[in-house]
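The pair is quoted verbatim below.
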Amino acid sequence: MGAGSNDSKNYIAGLLRVGYHYNETWSFGAGVGYSHQNITTTSAIVDPSVERIQYSSELSIWEIPLDARVKFLKYLYANAGPMLHFQQNANSYVDKQHGIGFHIGLGAKVPLSQQFAVLLSPHYKMYSLIPFQSERNHDRVQALGIAIGVNYRIVK
C-alpha cells in the first residue's frame, strides 16, 4: 500500500584531494573522502491499522573521487567525475553502498595569496550508480550539499 523510506540526519564528510593543473582552464584531481550519517528507516505500510515501525542506524562510506575541473570567468569552475565508494559499517536497513557513482558541482575558488585559496562548492553526489553488489531493490544514497575548503598550491 505504501513504500518505506529512509531519512538522513547529521551528515558530515571530509575530503583530501590532489590536483594537477593541465593549463589555465583545465585541471584534474583525485582524492580520498569519508562521510558519516544517521539514517532513520520507516517501514512500508502493509496494513493501515498497524503503526509503521522506525529503525535507526548509521552509515559510513569511504570514497575515491576522480574529477575534471573547467575554470570559467575569474573565480568560477565546474567539476564532474566518477567515484569509487565502499560502505565501512554493516547496515541491515539500507542496501550496501559499494560501487561506482558520480559527482557534479559548481564552485568558486578565491585566492588569498600565491599559495592559498578558499573554495565554496555546491555539489550533488549519487552513490551505487553501478553497484558492485546487486540486490532486488537497490537503494542509492544521494547527497546534495555545499563543500567549504582550503586550497594549498605548491609553487614551483
Observations:
- The chain has a mean pLDDT of 86.
- The longest strand covers residues 54-72.
- Residues 5-152 form one domain.
- Strands lie at 5-21, 26-42, 54-72, 76-87, 99-111, 116-131, 142-152.
